[in-house]
Amino acid sequence: MKITKVGFVINVKKHEIREVLSQIFDVIPAEVEIAGSEEAVDLLPAGRVKMVNSYRGCHAVLALGGDGTLLRAATLVEEDQIPLLGIKVRSLGFLTEDDPRGAVEDLFHDRYEIQERMRLEVAIEKEGSVRERYSALNDVVIHGVGVSRVIHLKTTIDGLKLGEYLADGVIVSTPTGSTAYSLAAGGPIVNPTSVEAFIITPLCPHSLSVRPLVVSSEETFVVELVEEGQETLLTIDGQRACGIHKGERIVFRRCLKVTKLIVTEGYNFYDLVRRKLRWGGVLREH
Hints:
Blueprint: E1 5-10, H1 17-25, E2 33-36, H2 38-43, E3 49-51, E4 60-65, H3 67-76, E5 84-88, H4 100-108, E6 112-126, E7 129-136, E8 139-144, E9 151-157, E10 160-167, E11 169-173, H5 181-184, E12 197-203, E13 213-216, E14 221-225, E15 232-236, E16 240-244, E17 249-264, H6 269-277
Parallel strand pairs: 1-2, 1-4, 2-3, 4-5
Antiparallel strand pairs: 6-7, 6-17, 8-11, 8-15, 9-10, 9-14, 11-12, 12-13, 14-17, 15-16
């Protein structure tokens, strides 16, 4: 694919951002059109960036920051499914490239592949109508707000009762999100390049029998609040949130759209897990 127009999504709070931009800007061909928000216009060379409200028409969008920045960019390009290249700036960066200059050089020298990552759709339904609908690349979390956060949840899969339990909440993640909040809460690691599934991870359940569950992406998972004693939120990719209430059905299913993630040559998920998470290391000294 010949790239003639790229977009920029930038985390301006990273103080190293100007240095990273200077590294990659030199390798972007002069004839390539650059689009960005007002924050990008302020950081990049004068007259080089066209300020836009939409990235439609871009062949790729560069997300500079960390995984949170890439998740924000994924929402911005979801409708048009524009390929995303994440570039790490002082973060763990599980979804982003470690070498900013090298990643951009690879992009313009056609040394990359595009992975289609499954997205998760969540709808808030009441009396047969949809009040809100969102989609996530990483995860959707149902959780209480405040000091006393325990909530009573009823869950079903494809109309069959899965169970009821008390917990701080529940995380529903994609394989891409299996190495994020779900992993920290005790969920399994699932390879997003070869498995399409949902990971259901209860948050601090008040029962030893309630454990994380991996289900097919073709199934429909539903959560309902049994009691409404406190404020309960639905948080999408850590970027957006809305309140949910008793009497509403929170319906999770596979999204029809995907996120197209650009990865450089040599990408391997298991190698990434080993390097980033120190997985499989020997703890004793030889």
